[in-house]
Design a protein that fits this description.
The chain is of the alpha+beta class. About 45% of the residues lie in helices and about 20% in strands.
Length: about 300
Amino acid sequence: MAITAAMVKELRDMTGAGMSDCKKALTDTDGDMDGAVEWLKKHGLSKAEKKAGRIAAEGIVCVCLSDDAKNASIVEVNSETDFVAKNEKFQTFVGSVAKQALATSATDIDSFLAEPWIEDSSVTVDENLKSMIATIGENMNIRRFEKVSEADGVIVSYIHAGGKIGVLVKAKTSASADQVSECLKNVAMQVAAMNPKYLSTDDVSEDYKKKELAILVEQAKNDPKNASKPDDIIEKMVTGRLNKELKEVCLNEQVYVKAENKETVGQYVASVAKEIGSDITLTGFVRYETGEGLEKKEEDFAAEVAAQIG
Protein backbone atom coordinates (compact mmCIF):
# COMPACT_ATOMS: atom_id res chain seq x y z
CA MET A 1 0.00 0.00 0.00
CA ALA A 2 1.28 3.50 -0.88
CA ILE A 3 1.99 5.61 2.19
CA THR A 4 0.79 9.20 1.67
CA ALA A 5 1.91 12.38 3.38
CA ALA A 6 -1.63 12.78 4.77
CA MET A 7 -1.39 9.37 6.47
CA VAL A 8 1.96 10.24 7.99
CA LYS A 9 0.58 13.56 9.26
CA GLU A 10 -2.47 11.87 10.75
CA LEU A 11 -0.33 9.35 12.63
CA ARG A 12 1.99 12.09 13.84
CA ASP A 13 -0.97 14.13 15.14
CA MET A 14 -2.26 11.06 16.96
CA THR A 15 1.03 10.05 18.58
CA GLY A 16 3.42 13.01 18.61
CA ALA A 17 6.13 10.83 17.07
CA GLY A 18 8.52 12.20 14.43
CA MET A 19 7.63 12.16 10.72
CA SER A 20 10.29 9.63 9.79
CA ASP A 21 9.20 7.28 12.60
CA CYS A 22 5.56 7.59 11.52
CA LYS A 23 6.46 6.80 7.93
CA LYS A 24 8.45 3.72 9.00
CA ALA A 25 5.60 2.56 11.24
CA LEU A 26 3.07 2.85 8.40
CA THR A 27 5.42 1.16 5.95
CA ASP A 28 6.08 -1.75 8.29
CA THR A 29 2.33 -2.21 8.97
CA ASP A 30 1.28 -1.78 5.32
CA GLY A 31 -0.65 1.42 6.06
CA ASP A 32 -2.70 0.03 8.95
CA MET A 33 -3.21 3.10 11.21
CA ASP A 34 -4.04 1.12 14.37
CA GLY A 35 -1.18 -1.22 13.71
CA ALA A 36 1.16 1.74 13.18
CA VAL A 37 0.12 3.26 16.53
CA GLU A 38 0.87 -0.08 18.19
CA TRP A 39 4.20 -0.26 16.34
CA LEU A 40 5.20 3.15 17.69
CA LYS A 41 4.19 2.17 21.22
CA LYS A 42 6.28 -0.98 21.04
CA HIS A 43 9.26 1.04 19.87
CA GLY A 44 8.72 3.70 22.52
CA LEU A 45 8.21 6.48 19.97
CA SER A 46 4.71 7.76 20.80
CA LYS A 47 5.64 9.45 24.06
CA ALA A 48 6.78 12.91 23.00
CA GLU A 49 3.34 14.54 23.10
CA LYS A 50 2.63 13.26 26.62
CA LYS A 51 5.90 14.71 27.87
CA ALA A 52 5.45 18.13 26.23
CA GLY A 53 3.70 19.68 29.23
CA ARG A 54 6.39 18.76 31.73
CA ILE A 55 8.77 21.46 32.94
CA ALA A 56 12.17 21.41 31.24
CA ALA A 57 14.40 23.88 33.08
CA GLU A 58 17.69 21.95 33.22
CA GLY A 59 19.91 21.31 30.21
CA ILE A 60 23.04 22.87 28.74
CA VAL A 61 24.33 25.79 26.73
CA CYS A 62 26.52 24.98 23.73
CA VAL A 63 28.49 27.06 21.22
CA CYS A 64 29.83 26.49 17.73
CA LEU A 65 32.54 28.59 16.03
CA SER A 66 33.56 28.81 12.39
CA ASP A 67 37.11 27.77 11.50
CA ASP A 68 38.18 31.39 11.03
CA ALA A 69 36.65 32.43 14.40
CA LYS A 70 34.64 35.20 12.73
CA ASN A 71 31.22 33.58 13.09
CA ALA A 72 29.68 31.73 16.02
CA SER A 73 26.42 30.48 17.45
CA ILE A 74 25.16 29.84 20.96
CA VAL A 75 22.14 27.72 21.92
CA GLU A 76 20.30 26.65 25.04
CA VAL A 77 18.56 23.27 25.01
CA ASN A 78 16.57 22.27 28.09
CA SER A 79 15.80 18.92 29.68
CA GLU A 80 13.77 18.00 32.75
CA THR A 81 16.68 16.74 34.84
CA ASP A 82 20.37 17.40 35.29
CA PHE A 83 20.91 13.64 34.86
CA VAL A 84 19.78 13.83 31.23
CA ALA A 85 21.75 17.07 30.71
CA LYS A 86 24.89 15.05 31.48
CA ASN A 87 23.88 12.25 29.10
CA GLU A 88 26.29 11.87 26.16
CA LYS A 89 23.47 11.37 23.65
CA PHE A 90 21.78 14.58 24.81
CA GLN A 91 25.05 16.54 24.68
CA THR A 92 25.80 15.27 21.17
CA PHE A 93 22.32 16.37 20.10
CA VAL A 94 22.84 19.86 21.55
CA GLY A 95 26.17 20.10 19.73
CA SER A 96 24.33 19.40 16.48
CA VAL A 97 21.74 22.07 17.35
CA ALA A 98 24.60 24.56 17.75
CA LYS A 99 25.94 23.59 14.31
CA GLN A 100 22.45 24.07 12.89
CA ALA A 101 22.30 27.52 14.51
CA LEU A 102 25.63 28.51 12.96
CA ALA A 103 24.34 27.61 9.49
CA THR A 104 20.74 28.84 9.91
CA SER A 105 19.10 31.76 8.14
CA ALA A 106 16.24 31.75 10.67
CA THR A 107 15.79 34.76 12.93
CA ASP A 108 13.28 33.27 15.39
CA ILE A 109 12.83 29.93 17.13
CA ASP A 110 9.70 28.90 15.19
CA SER A 111 11.46 29.31 11.84
CA PHE A 112 14.49 27.52 13.23
CA LEU A 113 12.41 24.52 14.34
CA ALA A 114 10.76 24.33 10.92
CA GLU A 115 14.06 24.04 9.05
CA PRO A 116 15.35 20.73 7.66
CA TRP A 117 17.55 19.04 10.27
CA ILE A 118 21.24 19.52 9.45
CA GLU A 119 22.00 15.80 9.76
CA ASP A 120 18.90 14.45 8.00
CA SER A 121 17.06 16.80 5.65
CA SER A 122 14.07 14.43 5.44
CA VAL A 123 12.92 15.67 8.86
CA THR A 124 12.69 19.11 10.45
CA VAL A 125 14.56 20.27 13.53
CA ASP A 126 11.30 19.98 15.49
CA GLU A 127 10.61 16.44 14.28
CA ASN A 128 14.10 15.34 15.23
CA LEU A 129 13.64 16.96 18.64
CA LYS A 130 10.45 14.97 19.20
CA SER A 131 12.22 11.80 18.21
CA MET A 132 14.91 12.59 20.80
CA ILE A 133 12.23 13.19 23.45
CA ALA A 134 10.78 9.77 22.74
CA THR A 135 14.20 8.12 22.77
CA ILE A 136 15.53 9.74 25.95
CA GLY A 137 12.20 9.70 27.79
CA GLU A 138 12.12 13.31 29.01
CA ASN A 139 10.63 16.52 27.71
CA MET A 140 13.22 18.68 25.95
CA ASN A 141 13.08 22.14 24.48
CA ILE A 142 15.30 24.10 22.10
CA ARG A 143 14.74 27.35 23.93
CA ARG A 144 16.86 29.96 22.15
CA PHE A 145 19.77 30.58 19.83
CA GLU A 146 21.86 33.52 18.63
CA LYS A 147 24.38 34.06 15.87
CA VAL A 148 27.37 36.37 16.31
CA SER A 149 29.68 37.74 13.60
CA GLU A 150 32.83 39.88 13.61
CA ALA A 151 34.23 40.27 10.11
CA ASP A 152 37.05 42.55 11.25
CA GLY A 153 38.24 40.56 14.23
CA VAL A 154 37.82 37.48 16.37
CA ILE A 155 35.17 35.66 18.43
CA VAL A 156 36.01 33.46 21.41
CA SER A 157 33.80 31.22 23.53
CA TYR A 158 33.76 30.04 27.10
CA ILE A 159 31.67 27.27 28.65
CA HIS A 160 31.38 27.15 32.43
CA ALA A 161 30.44 24.16 34.62
CA GLY A 162 29.79 21.74 31.79
CA GLY A 163 27.31 23.98 30.02
CA LYS A 164 25.53 25.76 32.86
CA ILE A 165 26.76 29.07 31.42
CA GLY A 166 27.95 29.81 27.89
CA VAL A 167 29.56 33.03 26.64
CA LEU A 168 30.62 34.48 23.30
CA VAL A 169 32.84 37.58 23.19
CA LYS A 170 33.76 39.39 19.99
CA ALA A 171 36.42 42.02 19.35
CA LYS A 172 37.61 44.07 16.43
CA THR A 173 41.37 43.59 16.00
CA SER A 174 44.08 43.32 13.36
CA ALA A 175 45.92 40.76 15.51
CA SER A 176 45.66 37.02 14.93
CA ALA A 177 43.27 34.83 16.89
CA ASP A 178 46.24 33.21 18.66
CA GLN A 179 47.52 36.60 19.85
CA VAL A 180 44.22 37.71 21.41
CA SER A 181 42.59 34.41 22.38
CA GLU A 182 43.88 34.37 25.97
CA CYS A 183 42.81 37.97 26.55
CA LEU A 184 39.33 37.45 25.13
CA LYS A 185 38.95 34.15 26.99
CA ASN A 186 39.64 36.03 30.22
CA VAL A 187 37.01 38.60 29.24
CA ALA A 188 34.54 35.79 28.51
CA MET A 189 35.20 34.37 31.99
CA GLN A 190 34.49 37.85 33.40
CA VAL A 191 31.16 37.89 31.56
CA ALA A 192 30.28 34.45 32.94
CA ALA A 193 31.14 35.46 36.52
CA MET A 194 29.89 39.05 36.68
CA ASN A 195 26.93 38.93 34.26
CA PRO A 196 27.17 42.45 32.77
CA LYS A 197 24.11 43.80 30.99
CA TYR A 198 25.85 46.23 28.64
CA LEU A 199 29.20 46.55 26.86
CA SER A 200 29.84 50.10 28.12
CA THR A 201 28.00 52.97 29.82
CA ASP A 202 27.46 54.51 26.37
CA ASP A 203 25.20 51.56 25.53
CA VAL A 204 22.91 51.88 28.57
CA SER A 205 19.36 52.75 27.53
CA GLU A 206 17.68 55.86 28.90
CA ASP A 207 14.77 53.70 30.09
CA TYR A 208 17.14 51.62 32.23
CA LYS A 209 18.73 54.75 33.70
CA LYS A 210 15.33 56.26 34.53
CA LYS A 211 14.10 53.09 36.22
CA GLU A 212 17.26 52.69 38.29
CA LEU A 213 17.26 56.38 39.24
CA ALA A 214 13.61 56.16 40.35
CA ILE A 215 14.46 53.18 42.58
CA LEU A 216 17.40 55.01 44.17
CA VAL A 217 15.35 58.18 44.70
CA GLU A 218 12.59 56.20 46.40
CA GLN A 219 15.11 54.46 48.64
CA ALA A 220 16.63 57.82 49.62
CA LYS A 221 13.22 59.32 50.35
CA ASN A 222 12.44 56.44 52.71
CA ASP A 223 15.59 57.17 54.72
CA PRO A 224 14.59 59.27 57.77
CA LYS A 225 17.82 61.28 57.41
CA ASN A 226 16.49 62.73 54.14
CA ALA A 227 12.98 63.54 55.34
CA SER A 228 13.43 67.32 55.10
CA LYS A 229 15.29 67.37 51.78
CA PRO A 230 13.48 68.44 48.57
CA ASP A 231 13.20 66.05 45.61
CA ASP A 232 15.72 67.87 43.41
CA ILE A 233 18.40 67.63 46.11
CA ILE A 234 17.69 63.94 46.64
CA GLU A 235 17.97 63.30 42.91
CA LYS A 236 21.38 65.01 42.80
CA MET A 237 22.45 62.95 45.81
CA VAL A 238 21.71 59.63 44.16
CA THR A 239 23.08 60.46 40.68
CA GLY A 240 26.60 59.56 41.82
CA ARG A 241 25.33 56.27 43.20
CA LEU A 242 23.60 55.55 39.88
CA ASN A 243 26.82 56.16 37.94
CA LYS A 244 28.63 53.76 40.27
CA GLU A 245 25.96 51.09 39.75
CA LEU A 246 26.08 51.55 35.98
CA LYS A 247 29.79 50.72 36.02
CA GLU A 248 28.95 47.45 37.76
CA VAL A 249 26.65 46.35 34.92
CA CYS A 250 28.84 47.52 32.02
CA LEU A 251 31.62 45.15 30.92
CA ASN A 252 34.26 47.72 29.94
CA GLU A 253 33.84 49.63 33.22
CA GLN A 254 33.66 46.61 35.53
CA VAL A 255 36.66 45.95 37.78
CA TYR A 256 38.57 43.10 36.14
CA VAL A 257 38.21 40.17 38.56
CA LYS A 258 41.63 38.68 37.83
CA ALA A 259 43.47 41.98 38.35
CA GLU A 260 45.60 42.50 41.42
CA ASN A 261 45.00 46.24 41.20
CA LYS A 262 41.68 47.98 40.48
CA GLU A 263 42.01 48.12 36.71
CA THR A 264 38.83 47.79 34.66
CA VAL A 265 38.16 45.26 31.91
CA GLY A 266 38.63 48.03 29.35
CA GLN A 267 42.02 48.91 30.84
CA TYR A 268 43.05 45.25 30.88
CA VAL A 269 42.20 44.85 27.19
CA ALA A 270 44.08 48.06 26.38
CA SER A 271 47.16 46.79 28.25
CA VAL A 272 47.16 43.55 26.23
CA ALA A 273 46.74 45.53 23.00
CA LYS A 274 49.78 47.64 23.91
CA GLU A 275 51.79 44.54 24.81
CA ILE A 276 51.19 42.83 21.45
CA GLY A 277 51.39 46.09 19.47
CA SER A 278 47.91 45.87 18.00
CA ASP A 279 44.44 47.28 18.48
CA ILE A 280 41.75 45.32 20.40
CA THR A 281 38.26 46.76 20.75
CA LEU A 282 35.48 44.74 22.41
CA THR A 283 32.40 44.94 20.19
CA GLY A 284 29.89 42.67 21.89
CA PHE A 285 29.09 39.62 23.99
CA VAL A 286 26.34 37.07 24.56
CA ARG A 287 25.79 35.24 27.84
CA TYR A 288 23.34 32.34 28.25
CA GLU A 289 22.67 30.69 31.59
CA THR A 290 20.73 27.44 31.63
CA GLY A 291 17.18 27.82 32.89
CA GLU A 292 17.40 31.56 33.67
CA GLY A 293 13.88 32.96 33.93
CA LEU A 294 12.25 29.52 33.79
CA GLU A 295 10.05 28.02 36.49
CA LYS A 296 11.81 25.06 38.05
CA LYS A 297 10.06 22.03 39.42
CA GLU A 298 10.22 21.83 43.19
CA GLU A 299 11.06 18.32 44.30
CA ASP A 300 9.47 17.10 47.54
CA PHE A 301 10.70 13.54 47.85
CA ALA A 302 9.10 13.00 51.28
CA ALA A 303 5.68 13.93 49.91
CA GLU A 304 6.25 11.77 46.85
CA VAL A 305 7.10 8.71 48.95
CA ALA A 306 4.15 9.38 51.27
CA ALA A 307 1.80 9.60 48.30
CA GLN A 308 3.07 6.30 46.92
CA ILE A 309 2.65 4.58 50.30
CA GLY A 310 -0.80 6.10 50.77
